[in-house]
Amino acid sequence: TKRIDPIPVAMYGGRQAVSMLPGGGIGPELMSYVRDVFKYAGAPVDFETVDIDPNSESNDDLDYAITSIKRNGVAIKGNIETKSKSAETLSRNVAIRNELDLYVNVLHCKSYPGLPARQKNIDLMIIRQNTEGEYAMLEHECIDGVIESMKVVTASNSERVARFAFEFAKRNGRKKITTIHKANIMKLSDGLFLETSKRIAKEYPEIEHNEMIIDNCCMQLVSNPHQFDVMLMTNLYGSIVSNVCCGLIGGAGLLSGRNYGDHYAIFEPATRNTGKAIAGKNVANPIAMLNAGIDMLHHLGHVQHADLITKAMVKTICEDKIHTPDLGGTAKSTDVIQNIIDYILTVDVRPW
Ligand code: ADP
Ligand code: MG
Q1: How far is ligand 2, taken at its centre, from the CA of residue 288, in Å?
Q2: Are 256 and 267 in contact (CB under 8 A)?
Q3: Is residue 77 helix, strand or coil?
Q4: Helix, strand and coil in the chain, % to nearest 5
Q5: What does pLDDT average to over the chain?
Q6: φ and ψ at 337, to 5 degrees?
């Protein structure tokens, strides 16, 4: 079976270099918090910061970012803005995922006990195709006033994302996978995605498999989300459903998302927001980006550092209840981070 197999990367003095793409809006401030927390937790990671000019029409910055990630194997990323409205200037975010062939996005949507939320005790996974579908970016005006936009679904990408989902479920003790689709209307494209997942499901008889139409899925998520375990879907449905799930457990400021291919991985906040309106005000919730950092530490095998930061973070938001305004609190972003660092300093009994 296939596994995520990072290409061996250079490590200097046992420290791992990772690419850091702050992006726009609140990205840079959130990255500075990740750096601070990593420093106090003693995480053996060095950041190579890569900025991409949102006003640029050229792809030089983008090419440099991709080279950096290929060199380091791993990146932490904010949302990059693309100012140009021209169809020729591709979204940098999409271009990076495509170029590195990060064909799957994984979101673990798990409630934090004691946080204000629409729904409690949620623990579900979203496995999303991350490089094609409605994000093919093949749009054109065929005649005046008529736009065509292509949705591309391939057998090979449908198969590898389905296989990833079942393998993931098996290894993580998950019991059920639900394929989310609209194959009743998009019979060929979503039909292929659905049929492929059904075929792969036969290889995993120990995991229950069912299907649900995307519109019903949205209703079910809001009214009865506990029926879901692992959800498998195409790119655009994944984007929307991810945001619904984040909303259910407390908003855009909490959860992280992981982008994987066979060779590279990128970690980022789950809802991929720029957060422009709240940038520079010291009010953005730093937890989503910190969770991306924790995911990255797990990926690099630095489990003890990841656990130390997780403990400090959970203590800060669930017990001490230091909450930014998105969670109904009055704390500043820096109050949350200071509390996390203070806890790391008091409990730090690192044997390593
Ligand atoms: P987009 O980048 O898609 O335009 P926005 O930046 O408008 O999305 O973000 C959507 C909403 O989520 C906004 O209300 C924004 O303030 C909020 N948001 C996003 N990230 C955070 C965060 N880290 N902390 C608090 N609120 C956030
Ligand atoms: Mg916006």
Answers
A1: 17
A2: yes
A3: strand
A4: 40, 20, 40
A5: 93
A6: -65, -40
